[in-house]
Amino acid sequence: MMRVPGAHGSPLEHKARGMDVRIVYSPSDALKLARTNPDKHVMFFAIGFETTAPSTALTLMRAKTEGIKNFSVFCNHVTIIPAIRAILDSPDMRLDAFIGPGHVSTVIGCRPYEWIARDEKRPIVVSGFEPLDLLQAIVMLLRQIKRRISIVENQYKRVVPWEGNRAALAAMAEVFELRPFFEWRGLGFISQSALRIKESYAQWDAERRFDVAGVRVTDPKAAQCGEVLKGVLKPVQCKLFGRECTPERPVGALMVSSEGSCAAYYNYEHRKTLGRQPATV
What we know:
Helix content: 25-40%
Shape: globular
Structural class: alpha/beta
Number of domains: 3
CATH topology of the largest domain: Rossmann fold
CATH superfamily of the largest domain: HypD, alpha/beta domain 2
Distance between the termini: 41 Å
Radius of gyration: 20 Å
Largest sheet: 3 strands, parallel
CATH class of the largest domain: Alpha Beta
Number of helices: 12
Strand order of the largest sheet: 3-4-5
Protein backbone atom coordinates (compact mmCIF):
# COMPACT_ATOMS: atom_id res chain seq x y z
CA MET A 1 0.00 0.00 0.00
CA MET A 2 2.93 2.34 0.54
CA ARG A 3 3.57 2.41 -3.21
CA VAL A 4 -0.03 2.79 -4.46
CA PRO A 5 -0.16 5.96 -6.58
CA GLY A 6 -2.80 8.53 -5.68
CA ALA A 7 -3.81 11.95 -6.99
CA HIS A 8 -1.03 13.63 -4.96
CA GLY A 9 1.50 10.82 -4.74
CA SER A 10 1.85 7.53 -2.90
CA PRO A 11 1.94 7.15 0.92
CA LEU A 12 5.67 6.47 0.57
CA GLU A 13 6.12 9.83 -1.15
CA HIS A 14 4.04 11.56 1.55
CA LYS A 15 6.26 9.92 4.17
CA ALA A 16 9.34 11.30 2.38
CA ARG A 17 7.75 14.77 2.58
CA GLY A 18 7.49 14.50 6.37
CA MET A 19 4.11 12.91 7.05
CA ASP A 20 4.07 10.30 9.83
CA VAL A 21 3.20 7.16 7.85
CA ARG A 22 4.18 3.81 9.34
CA ILE A 23 4.03 0.19 8.23
CA VAL A 24 2.46 -2.09 10.83
CA TYR A 25 2.24 -5.87 10.90
CA SER A 26 -1.44 -5.91 11.92
CA PRO A 27 -4.25 -3.52 12.93
CA SER A 28 -3.63 -4.44 16.57
CA ASP A 29 -0.18 -2.85 16.19
CA ALA A 30 -1.89 0.36 15.07
CA LEU A 31 -4.15 0.21 18.13
CA LYS A 32 -1.05 -0.23 20.30
CA LEU A 33 0.39 2.94 18.75
CA ALA A 34 -2.78 4.79 19.74
CA ARG A 35 -2.50 3.50 23.31
CA THR A 36 1.13 4.61 23.64
CA ASN A 37 0.55 7.98 21.93
CA PRO A 38 -2.60 9.39 23.56
CA ASP A 39 -1.77 12.91 22.31
CA LYS A 40 -1.94 11.80 18.65
CA HIS A 41 -4.68 10.37 16.46
CA VAL A 42 -3.76 7.07 14.80
CA MET A 43 -5.63 6.08 11.64
CA PHE A 44 -5.27 2.55 10.29
CA PHE A 45 -5.67 2.10 6.52
CA ALA A 46 -7.62 -1.17 6.31
CA ILE A 47 -7.27 -2.93 2.96
CA GLY A 48 -7.78 -6.40 1.57
CA PHE A 49 -10.40 -9.04 0.89
CA GLU A 50 -12.12 -11.18 3.51
CA THR A 51 -8.67 -12.51 4.39
CA THR A 52 -7.73 -9.43 6.43
CA ALA A 53 -11.18 -8.06 7.36
CA PRO A 54 -11.65 -10.24 10.50
CA SER A 55 -8.49 -8.87 12.15
CA THR A 56 -9.69 -5.31 11.48
CA ALA A 57 -13.10 -6.18 12.94
CA LEU A 58 -11.57 -7.66 16.08
CA THR A 59 -9.35 -4.60 16.51
CA LEU A 60 -12.36 -2.28 16.29
CA MET A 61 -14.21 -4.41 18.82
CA ARG A 62 -11.22 -4.11 21.17
CA ALA A 63 -10.99 -0.33 20.65
CA LYS A 64 -14.67 0.00 21.55
CA THR A 65 -14.31 -2.22 24.63
CA GLU A 66 -11.27 -0.28 25.87
CA GLY A 67 -12.76 3.10 24.96
CA ILE A 68 -9.72 4.21 22.94
CA LYS A 69 -10.79 7.47 21.31
CA ASN A 70 -7.63 8.50 19.41
CA PHE A 71 -7.91 5.61 16.95
CA SER A 72 -9.87 5.16 13.73
CA VAL A 73 -10.00 2.88 10.71
CA PHE A 74 -10.25 3.96 7.07
CA CYS A 75 -12.08 0.90 5.77
CA ASN A 76 -11.30 -0.22 2.22
CA HIS A 77 -11.98 -3.92 2.65
CA VAL A 78 -13.49 -5.55 -0.43
CA THR A 79 -15.38 -8.79 -1.09
CA ILE A 80 -14.39 -11.42 -3.61
CA ILE A 81 -17.70 -12.70 -5.00
CA PRO A 82 -19.03 -9.41 -6.52
CA ALA A 83 -15.64 -8.85 -8.18
CA ILE A 84 -15.75 -12.31 -9.79
CA ARG A 85 -19.34 -11.67 -10.87
CA ALA A 86 -18.33 -8.37 -12.49
CA ILE A 87 -15.56 -10.11 -14.42
CA LEU A 88 -17.92 -12.88 -15.56
CA ASP A 89 -20.59 -10.35 -16.61
CA SER A 90 -18.16 -8.45 -18.81
CA PRO A 91 -18.97 -8.98 -22.53
CA ASP A 92 -15.28 -9.36 -23.43
CA MET A 93 -14.44 -11.88 -20.67
CA ARG A 94 -12.23 -14.70 -21.97
CA LEU A 95 -11.51 -16.82 -18.89
CA ASP A 96 -12.20 -20.56 -19.05
CA ALA A 97 -11.78 -21.44 -15.37
CA PHE A 98 -10.81 -20.04 -11.98
CA ILE A 99 -8.19 -20.87 -9.39
CA GLY A 100 -9.99 -19.89 -6.21
CA PRO A 101 -8.08 -17.73 -3.69
CA GLY A 102 -6.87 -19.89 -0.82
CA HIS A 103 -6.46 -17.17 1.81
CA VAL A 104 -9.90 -15.64 1.20
CA SER A 105 -11.41 -19.12 1.29
CA THR A 106 -10.01 -19.82 4.75
CA VAL A 107 -12.58 -17.25 5.91
CA ILE A 108 -15.56 -17.60 3.55
CA GLY A 109 -15.11 -21.30 2.64
CA CYS A 110 -15.94 -22.89 -0.72
CA ARG A 111 -19.75 -22.73 -0.78
CA PRO A 112 -19.92 -19.08 -2.01
CA TYR A 113 -18.30 -20.18 -5.31
CA GLU A 114 -20.93 -22.79 -6.20
CA TRP A 115 -22.90 -20.40 -8.43
CA ILE A 116 -19.81 -19.95 -10.66
CA ALA A 117 -19.83 -23.64 -11.57
CA ARG A 118 -23.61 -24.07 -11.52
CA ASP A 119 -24.78 -20.91 -13.33
CA GLU A 120 -21.74 -19.76 -15.30
CA LYS A 121 -20.42 -23.25 -16.18
CA ARG A 122 -16.87 -22.32 -15.19
CA PRO A 123 -14.73 -24.83 -13.26
CA ILE A 124 -13.17 -23.52 -10.06
CA VAL A 125 -10.55 -25.07 -7.79
CA VAL A 126 -9.64 -23.43 -4.48
CA SER A 127 -5.87 -23.66 -4.24
CA GLY A 128 -2.97 -23.04 -1.91
CA PHE A 129 0.02 -20.94 -2.91
CA GLU A 130 2.93 -23.36 -2.99
CA PRO A 131 4.12 -24.39 -6.48
CA LEU A 132 2.79 -27.93 -6.01
CA ASP A 133 -0.58 -26.53 -4.87
CA LEU A 134 -0.92 -24.46 -8.01
CA LEU A 135 0.21 -27.28 -10.29
CA GLN A 136 -2.28 -29.67 -8.74
CA ALA A 137 -5.06 -27.07 -9.04
CA ILE A 138 -4.28 -26.60 -12.74
CA VAL A 139 -4.40 -30.38 -13.27
CA MET A 140 -7.77 -30.52 -11.48
CA LEU A 141 -9.11 -27.72 -13.69
CA LEU A 142 -7.87 -29.38 -16.88
CA ARG A 143 -9.54 -32.63 -15.87
CA GLN A 144 -12.84 -30.80 -15.41
CA ILE A 145 -12.49 -29.11 -18.80
CA LYS A 146 -11.61 -32.42 -20.44
CA ARG A 147 -14.67 -34.08 -18.88
CA ARG A 148 -16.81 -31.01 -19.75
CA ILE A 149 -18.01 -30.55 -16.20
CA SER A 150 -18.02 -27.52 -13.91
CA ILE A 151 -17.80 -28.03 -10.16
CA VAL A 152 -16.13 -26.45 -7.14
CA GLU A 153 -13.15 -28.45 -5.86
CA ASN A 154 -11.05 -27.79 -2.78
CA GLN A 155 -7.37 -28.50 -3.33
CA TYR A 156 -6.48 -26.61 -0.14
CA LYS A 157 -8.32 -28.93 2.26
CA ARG A 158 -5.53 -28.78 4.81
CA VAL A 159 -6.43 -25.14 5.48
CA VAL A 160 -9.83 -24.32 3.92
CA PRO A 161 -13.05 -25.64 5.51
CA TRP A 162 -15.99 -25.93 3.10
CA GLU A 163 -18.21 -23.72 5.29
CA GLY A 164 -15.48 -21.21 6.18
CA ASN A 165 -14.41 -19.80 9.53
CA ARG A 166 -17.62 -19.04 11.40
CA ALA A 167 -15.93 -17.10 14.20
CA ALA A 168 -14.24 -14.79 11.67
CA LEU A 169 -17.50 -14.33 9.75
CA ALA A 170 -19.32 -13.48 13.00
CA ALA A 171 -16.74 -10.79 13.86
CA MET A 172 -17.14 -9.25 10.40
CA ALA A 173 -20.93 -9.27 10.73
CA GLU A 174 -20.65 -7.49 14.09
CA VAL A 175 -18.58 -4.59 12.75
CA PHE A 176 -19.16 -4.28 8.99
CA GLU A 177 -21.97 -3.91 6.48
CA LEU A 178 -21.95 -3.92 2.68
CA ARG A 179 -21.53 -0.68 0.76
CA PRO A 180 -24.10 -0.03 -1.99
CA PHE A 181 -21.27 0.73 -4.46
CA PHE A 182 -17.49 0.76 -4.48
CA GLU A 183 -15.07 1.86 -7.20
CA TRP A 184 -12.31 -0.61 -8.07
CA ARG A 185 -9.08 0.17 -9.84
CA GLY A 186 -9.29 -1.45 -13.25
CA LEU A 187 -12.94 -2.56 -12.94
CA GLY A 188 -14.91 0.59 -12.07
CA PHE A 189 -17.99 0.63 -9.83
CA ILE A 190 -19.22 -2.74 -8.52
CA SER A 191 -22.35 -2.88 -6.35
CA GLN A 192 -22.11 -4.38 -2.85
CA SER A 193 -18.45 -5.26 -3.38
CA ALA A 194 -16.92 -3.62 -0.30
CA LEU A 195 -17.41 -3.24 3.43
CA ARG A 196 -18.02 -0.17 5.55
CA ILE A 197 -18.09 0.28 9.30
CA LYS A 198 -21.51 0.04 10.95
CA GLU A 199 -23.14 2.97 12.70
CA SER A 200 -22.55 1.32 16.08
CA TYR A 201 -18.80 1.77 15.48
CA ALA A 202 -19.05 5.24 13.88
CA GLN A 203 -16.75 6.80 16.50
CA TRP A 204 -13.87 4.75 15.09
CA ASP A 205 -14.74 5.28 11.40
CA ALA A 206 -12.15 7.57 9.77
CA GLU A 207 -14.44 8.05 6.78
CA ARG A 208 -17.04 9.72 8.98
CA ARG A 209 -14.54 11.42 11.26
CA PHE A 210 -12.58 13.15 8.49
CA ASP A 211 -15.34 13.42 5.86
CA VAL A 212 -13.52 11.56 3.07
CA ALA A 213 -16.53 9.86 1.47
CA GLY A 214 -16.83 10.08 -2.32
CA VAL A 215 -13.12 10.19 -3.19
CA ARG A 216 -12.75 8.98 -6.77
CA VAL A 217 -10.18 6.55 -8.13
CA THR A 218 -7.48 8.25 -10.20
CA ASP A 219 -6.35 5.44 -12.51
CA PRO A 220 -4.74 6.78 -15.71
CA LYS A 221 -6.90 6.06 -18.74
CA ALA A 222 -3.98 4.43 -20.52
CA ALA A 223 -3.67 1.72 -17.84
CA GLN A 224 -5.42 -1.46 -19.03
CA CYS A 225 -5.66 -3.39 -15.76
CA GLY A 226 -9.30 -4.31 -16.36
CA GLU A 227 -8.50 -5.95 -19.69
CA VAL A 228 -5.67 -7.96 -18.09
CA LEU A 229 -7.96 -9.10 -15.26
CA LYS A 230 -10.57 -10.33 -17.76
CA GLY A 231 -8.02 -12.19 -19.90
CA VAL A 232 -8.48 -9.87 -22.86
CA LEU A 233 -4.84 -8.77 -22.79
CA LYS A 234 -1.62 -10.24 -21.51
CA PRO A 235 0.31 -7.83 -19.26
CA VAL A 236 2.94 -7.14 -21.93
CA GLN A 237 0.18 -5.97 -24.30
CA CYS A 238 -0.78 -3.06 -22.02
CA LYS A 239 0.33 0.29 -23.44
CA LEU A 240 2.16 1.22 -20.22
CA PHE A 241 3.74 -2.13 -19.35
CA GLY A 242 7.51 -1.99 -18.85
CA ARG A 243 7.62 1.65 -19.92
CA GLU A 244 5.73 4.10 -17.73
CA CYS A 245 4.55 1.24 -15.48
CA THR A 246 7.21 -0.89 -13.74
CA PRO A 247 7.51 -2.44 -10.25
CA GLU A 248 9.77 0.46 -9.27
CA ARG A 249 7.28 3.06 -10.56
CA PRO A 250 3.86 1.35 -10.70
CA VAL A 251 0.95 3.07 -12.38
CA GLY A 252 -1.72 0.36 -12.57
CA ALA A 253 -3.07 -1.71 -9.69
CA LEU A 254 -1.67 -4.99 -11.06
CA MET A 255 1.89 -3.70 -10.96
CA VAL A 256 1.76 -2.29 -7.42
CA SER A 257 1.66 -5.60 -5.56
CA SER A 258 4.44 -8.15 -5.93
CA GLU A 259 1.60 -10.70 -6.21
CA GLY A 260 -0.06 -8.85 -9.10
CA SER A 261 -0.05 -10.45 -12.52
CA CYS A 262 1.79 -7.54 -14.16
CA ALA A 263 4.53 -7.47 -11.52
CA ALA A 264 4.97 -11.25 -11.77
CA TYR A 265 5.06 -11.10 -15.58
CA TYR A 266 7.60 -8.27 -15.45
CA ASN A 267 9.88 -10.01 -12.95
CA TYR A 268 9.93 -13.38 -14.69
CA GLU A 269 8.68 -13.62 -18.26
CA HIS A 270 9.41 -10.06 -19.40
CA ARG A 271 12.98 -10.08 -18.14
CA LYS A 272 13.62 -13.45 -19.78
CA THR A 273 12.41 -11.95 -23.06
CA LEU A 274 14.73 -8.98 -22.65
CA GLY A 275 17.64 -11.33 -21.94
CA ARG A 276 17.05 -13.22 -25.20
CA GLN A 277 17.17 -10.08 -27.34
CA PRO A 278 20.40 -9.64 -29.35
CA ALA A 279 22.69 -6.86 -28.23
CA THR A 280 22.82 -3.77 -30.44
CA VAL A 281 25.89 -1.67 -31.16
